[in-house]
Design a protein that fits this description.
This protein is α/β, with parallel strands linked by helices. It folds into 2 domains: about 5-155 and about 325-360, Quinone Oxidoreductase, Chain A, domain 1 (Alpha-Beta Complex); about 165-305, 3-Layer(aba) Sandwich (Rossmann fold), CATH 3.40.50. It is about 30% helix and about 25% strand. Helix 1 (about 45-50) crosses helix 12 (about 340-345), helix 5 packs across helix 6 (about 185-200) and helix 5 (about 160-170) packs across helix 11 (about 310-320). About 50% of the residues are buried.
Length: about 375
């Protein structure tokens, strides 16, 4: 039996989260209600919290939901192949699945795209985010069944790992033996190491700051061959050395806000190589960006936003196989009421503490 209300953390203004008790709706033929087991926290949670994304308010944040189906309509159960009691990973994007972009195979860029956690409370049935005990799963959702015996904080890593597979393997078409340079050792960078290793990359290099020493250690544990502290080493020279002057086949840029790595990615990549840009920079221009390098070296630059089903499926398989110690990058579990602390811990606003992968675990 579903309870009547769900406790949720509602964002009412920039940097303001409030505890609310919201009614849990009944399900229709084609929708479901899940009990949230974990909600992953990522950099865009911080941007949403700060208000820089200009998302509608009030709304329930949390776009990386993992939960158990508590109620489901017959149509949804049939369509998704799941039932009450199943654990599901819910994809972030809500696409129409019938516009030209969706039908062209890019449903994550849907012309009518909506995103969980960016839908306001005023849109029925309000429970559109995972900073909540319960979440509504809309008819146009994409859900993946997951092994229930995994700890929730590990299962919910389908998000960063899915990004690793899409950004470091699928988009750049990473091949066996390729040299892959990953700029930034956050959860997405570390997930990129795992994914590139799975794809058979020959050499993996990860760059970071001096403050990232711990993360760079984890990068090595996940299979990075070289790590570079860009504050104390000349990264351009080091990458030249490592690649014997040739440059990397693939460069994946996943730093947050830093603009220098975008400029330098053109130096790191080989002639004819590919650069994937996935780290957002708050819409700032990149100083000293030399586009001639793109011309002279015939560099392919690709943007990456979000993850699609093939990336999520690879991530879920890897998690369920339990062969890679992905929990090494999980650092914090927070309660729902600690949502603000979770965001601040990720964004280095808590002295002496910093998270890599973290999630909210609602108490029931
Ligand atoms: Zn996220
Ligand atoms: Zn569409």
């Amino acid at each position: 039996m579903l309870p009547k209300k769900s406790m949720a953390m509602v964002q009412t203004a920039p940097r303001k989260l409030e505890r609310h008790d919201l009614p849990i709706p009944g399900v229709a033929h084609d929708s479901a209600i899940i009990r949230i087991e974990a909600c992953g926290i990522c950099g865009s949670d911080y941007e949403q919290y700060e208000g820089v994304l200009n998302t509608p308010l009030p709304a329930i944040p949390g776009h990386e939901p993992l939960g158990v189906i508590e109620a489901i309509g017959d149509g949804a159960a049939e369509k998704w192949g799941v039932d009450v009691g199943d654990r599901v990973a819910v994809e972030t994007m809500l696409s129409c699945h019938c516009c030209d972009t969706c039908l062209g195979g890019s449903y994550h860029l849907c012309d009518r795209r909506e995103i969980y956690s960016y839908i306001p409370l005023t849109t029925e049935p309000a429970l559109w985010g995972a900073y909540s005990q319960y979440m509504y799963v809309a008819p146009n959702s994409v859900v993946h069944k997951m092994d229930k015996s995994l700890p929730a904080e590990v299962a919910v890593m389908f998000n960063p790992l899915g990004a690793g597979f899409r950004w470091a393997v699928e988009i750049p078409e990473t091949k066996i033996g390729d040299t892959v340079v990953i700029l930034g050792p956050g959860q997405r960078g570390l997930a990129s190491v795992i994914a590139a290793r799975q794809a058979g990359a020959g050499t993996i290099v990860v760059t970071g700051l001096s403050a990232d020493a711990e993360k760079l250690k984890i990068a090595k544990a996940f299979g990075a061959d070289y790590v570079i502290d860009v504050e104390n080493e000349n990264a351009i020279e080091r990458i030249k050395e490592i690649t014997k002057g040739r440059g990397a086949d693939v460069v994946v840029e996943v730093t947050s806000y830093a603009t220098a790595p975008v400029r330098e990615s053109l130096e790191y990549v080989r002639r004819g190589g590919t650069v994937v840009l996935a780290g957002v920079k708050g819409f700032r221009a990149i100083p000293d960006f030399v586009s001639d390098l793109i011309v002279m070296k015939e560099i392919t630059i690709k943007g990456a936003i979000g993850v699609t089903s093939s990336g999520y499926k690879k991530a879920i398989k890897l998690i369920e196989d339990r062969k890679i110690p992905i929990e090494k990058m999980h650092t914090h579990n927070f309660s729902l009421e600690e949502a603000e602390l979770a965001i601040k811990t990720l964004s280095r606003q808590v002295p002496g503490d910093e998270s890599i992968h973290s999630c909210l675990i609602p108490e029931q």
